[in-house]
Specification:
Elements: H1 17-35, H2 39-42, E1 43-46, H3 78-81, E2 134-137, H4 151-164, H5 175-197, E3 199-202, E4 207-209, H6 212-220, H7 223-242, H8 244-249, H9 257-271, H10 274-279, H11 295-312, H12 319-341, H13 356-379
Antiparallel strand pairs: 1-2, 3-4
Bound molecules: flavin-adenine dinucleotide.
Flavin-adenine dinucleotide binds next to helix 4, helix 5 and helix 12.
Length: 390
């Protein structure tokens, strides 16, 4: 018996749910999983200390590299107050409140070279802001449960939704505003799915695993959130395939020929995949947007809203969440830049220019979304009886 509860074409896209699941499971997910482990794609350059422009009063975000050190000491559990062996008491001032929220900055080699710095009008987090950036190995910092919750986290999501991309009223005719809302909601679904899929089940035993109830409570019971996840996936996939000439010719040199050839080969397999081209050649049709007289003005307005969302990432009061928040918002900003900078397909003579970091963010975002789609597909039958109307 078919347990699928969502069928038909993904709203505003060009492929149906079943095709997305098949193509993702058979082709995209395995390729992306390989790609993000290569040296080129696993190091992300990021400004991690928060410089929140909106709530300078937020105690979680006041000091460099230190998310919670402004909290009164008695708010910390005893175990966090005691310095771990080999660590001076002073060093503790800048530890995250939850150890699982801190970013591991270990790098095994220096691999950045030779890419240009260009502006991205959709984000405030591009590489032109070089001075404060550090390199992070993403494989050492998986997106997972960190314990970041409560008013600080809620304030960010509330600000994103209420100030920057208000939920569209049904019957809303402005397609472009719908797109922004759906992209953010799809990303939010994906973050929640990763929290639930890699959850601290037992703190005393340090036991990690899937928390299916949390996945259901936060995402699966809401058909719209699942739909928005599929939409965001197809949107980002379209951006990757649209920039295929650029991505194919880009420089993946990290000084490790074997690994760099692997990255290049996996990128080609992704961009020129016959199964993907046959099943879903144009995952999203961006040509339909920004038509009409108010198009350019609307585009500027939405660009400004997206930049605000990007700036809000500096207010995320948990280092690891900030890392993945920034990466994924930069990835979305890169997808927007690719889809809305130049009309039609890119050719060599056109001027799409991407930063190395943008390419890394874009591919890692696609991988996160691909993982989420797979998890939804795997987990949904578990809740078959309770899921209605997907
Ligand atoms: P939240 O997820 O905070 O949601 C707030 C409200 O938004 C909900 O009540 C609902 O009304 C609405 N909402 C929820 N999902 C959707 C959706 N898909 N579409 C539309 N509306 C929705 N925590 C971690 O443990 N690990 C992380 O890596 C992590 N990364 C984060 C990154 C960012 C950028 C932010 C802002 C937060 C992050 N968090 C992370 C915190 C996490 O997202 C939640 O805020 C936290 O777990 C509390 O969850 P909640 O149940 O209160 O609902």
């Amino acid at each position: 018996q078919d347990s699928r509860k969502y069928t038909g074409i993904v709203e505003d896209c060009c492929c149906d749910y079943e095709t997305v699941d098949t193509i993702n499971g058979d082709v995209l997910h395995p390729l992306l999983q390989g790609l993000v482990t290569t040296p080129f794609f696993r190091y992300f350059k990021v400004k991690l200390w928060c410089d929140c422009p909106f709530w300078p009063d937020d105690g979680m975000c006041k000091l460099r590299d230190c998310s919670v050190c402004e909290c009164p000491e008695n708010e910390f559990p005893e175990s966090f107050r005691r310095p771990p062996l080999g660590l001076a008491a002073d060093d503790l001032k800048c530890q995250e409140g939850k150890p699982e929220a801190a970013v591991d900055r270990t790098l095994d080699s220096k691999v950045f070279r030779g890419w240009i710095e260009v502006d991205n009008p959709w984000t405030v987090d591009d590489e032109t802001d070089n001075g404060e950036m550090t390199y992070v190995n993403l494989l050492l910092n998986p997106e997972r449960y960190t314990g970041y919750t409560g008013p600080s986290a809620r304030r960010i999501w509330d600000a994103i939704y209420s100030e920057n991309c208000p939920k569209y009223a049904s019957g809303e005719i402005c397609q472009e505003k719908k797109v922004l809302y759906k992209l953010i909601s799809g990303l939010h679904s994906s973050i929640s799915i990763h929290i639930a899929a890699d959850y601290l089940l037992d703190e005393t035993k340090n036991q990690w695993g899937t928390n299916p109830d949390l996945m259901y409570d936060r995402v699966l019971q809401y058909p719209e959130r699942v739909r928005n996840l599929y939409f965001t996936f197809l949107f980002v996939l379209r951006a990757v395939t649209k920039a295929k000439d650029y991505l194919e010719q880009a420089e993946y040199d990290t000084g490790n020929p074997e690994e760099d050839l692997k990255a290049q080969s996996l990128i080609r397999q992704l961009l020129y995949n016959p199964k993907l081209q046959a099943a879903c050649p144009v995952p999203f049709d961006e040509a339909k947007l920004w038509k009409g007289q108010s198009g350019p003005e609307l585009k500027q307005q939405i660009q400004k809203q997206f930049r605000n969302i990007s700036a809000l990432m500096d207010c995320v009061g948990c280092e690891k969440c900030r890392l993945w928040g920034k990466l994924q918002v930069l990835g979305l900003g890169t997808a927007l830049k690719i889809l809305f900078s130049v009309d039609g397909e890119y050719r060599q003579d056109q001027h799409l220019q991407l930063q190395r970091n943008e390419v890394i963010a874009l591919v890692n975002l696609l991988n996160r979304l691909s993982e989420s789609i797979k998890l939804v597909q795997e987990m949904s039958p578990t809740f078959e009886k309770t899921m209605k109307g997907l």
